[in-house]
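User: Please predict the structure of the protein below. I'd like the answer in structure-token form so I can feed it into my own downstream comparison script.

Assistant: Understood. Taking the following sequence of 198 residues as input:
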Amino acid sequence: MIIILHGDNSFLSKRKLGEIISQHRSRHKTGLSFFSFDPALDGFDFSDFKSAVETVAMFSEKKLIVLKSLVKNIPIDYLKEKDLKNDSETIVVFYESAALDVQKNKDIRWLFEKPAISQESRNLDGEKLHSWIRGEVKQRGGEISQSATGLLATSCGRDLWQLSNEIDKLIAFSPAITDENVSLLTRKDSETDVFGAV
């Protein structure tokens, strides 16, 4: 099975990747069937990926292989040869922290074709952003008013990494997030300030 996680909203893509890894680890406790490659950290070599694919999983566990920032550098012929799209015992997750243009590259286009699963995480605006903020606050045990939600969105823009940190800080201060608390504690996005001034 092949899963592609990509998009301009790296917060949501990274969260989804974390969920997939967490689910795999809860089912396969040994950790021997999990492989992760990140060229920024470990100087990726394609032979390492091949070795992970071809290693026989211990205890009949499904293998999970995560490849970060590698979609453009993976030989598609190898994926086709190993029929990894239809391999139910091996899950390969490609994670890209930017949106991939499927139309510009025929190899990437093949990668996205079914039965592969892809999820593009787009930036949130307007009511979707407000809804996300309210959901995050609730999930973390807090509550937030409509006006405080708008103020927080205006302060941070659509940067979910910053919003997540600010929500944690606000809830630590008080589970009931008010306009006053947002004004007092939230670090404003300077880009938002510049656009507001203009």
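That's the full token string. The longest helix spans residues 10-27.
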